[in-house]
Amino acid sequence: MTVRPATPADSAAVWRLLNGFVTSYRPDRAVFEDVTFPQVLKSAAEGGAEFLVAERDSATVGYVLAVRMPTLFAGGTVLELLELTVDAGLRGGGIGSALIRAVQARAEAAGDVEVTVPTRRAGEFYRRLGFDETATYFKWSRS
């Protein structure tokens, strides 16, 4: 298995994985193709995000997206992990962990103060990878 930065050629695979990941939103394919996917690739190329994919046998089987934010409270940038997904049939085989370890390595290289992740469903997974639970996460959504 290989972890590498996402490229435009990953669009179809990331779309497929995204649709197996989302629970609160319904992604729109046209918006994904024309707006959000290119924006995320651009942000990653400029250092504002980490957008990595996992490949196995030449197939994209997982991805992770984290955004880098300057902060005052932490005295530097914080990398917030927003999306992590792996093909359902391959979960539990170390692909998600490899993606997280790659993000952590990139955060360390970039000098990020910390990596955070808002999650309700995957607390045990992140605890096993050395993350500590530190806060309750609130959100306001434009409806």
UniProtKB/TrEMBL annotation:
Entry-linked InterPro entries: Acyl_CoA_acyltransferase (IPR016181), Bact_Acetyltransf (IPR050832), GNAT_dom (IPR000182)
Coiled-coil annotated residue ranges, if any: none
GO molecular function: acyltransferase activity, transferring groups other than amino-acyl groups
Name of the protein in question: N-acetyltransferase domain-containing protein
Species in which this protein is naturally found: Streptomyces diastatochromogenes
All copies of domain N-acetyltransferase, residue ranges: 1-143
Assigned keywords, A-Z: Acyltransferase, Transferase
